[in-house]
Task: structure prediction
Amino acid sequence: LYQFLNVDEAEAKRRAEQAPGVRTLALEGETLYTTDEKWQHLAAALVGALRAFHAAHPLLPGMEMEALRSGLADQLAPRLFRACVEQLVRAGMFAREGNLLRLPEHQVHLQGEEQDVVRRVEELLSAQPLAPPDVKQLERDLGLAPARLAEILRVMERNGSIVKVAVDLYFLAEAIDTVKAAVGRHLMQHGSMTAATFRDLFGTSRKYAIPLLEYFDRDGLTVRVGDTRQLRERRRVDAG
Result:
């Protein structure tokens, strides 16, 4: 630009920033320029895409950034798209949570029928708290399509009422809290625990014992050592 204008770079930048109808974008230490018309066109396209997504998926908190970018008619490079999104977030047009984007006014609200499903899910999971039905069984019991049930389960998980222990297995949060406390006490007293010990302690089967133990590993309570589990914090102290 400064070569075209036959001025130094600083002067070219000053003129560009003061020119009517020109908008600047900060991108990793660089300054990019576009027109207000193109910017407004992009913003309108993004808002329209998010509005359509919210209408189609009212129970989802937002749309993945990459899905939004790839759906644009005019493709933007990922880093340029992120810079545009950051400016739109600062302007209050979007809200961002991690990699999810939503319109500021979008909130997840369960309707009457959906609240009935939530209550029914809680009933089914509480019937046998340590041997709950898997997702396939929930689909059959509730008569819901997989995608529909998945959305409701995600809402319940975000609300903290259930915990996703495996891809197809959810437990009530209070059941997880109870088991977690009992596992902690056992390991404080005995130092380690096998899958068989866990199974016998809680009167459950291997089908549930293994996913629960793996969940507690991921959650940071335990660490696997051979065929046993130990408290992660205690092992860290012992190793130190």
Observations:
- The chain is about 60% helix and 15% strand.
- The radius of gyration is 26 Å.
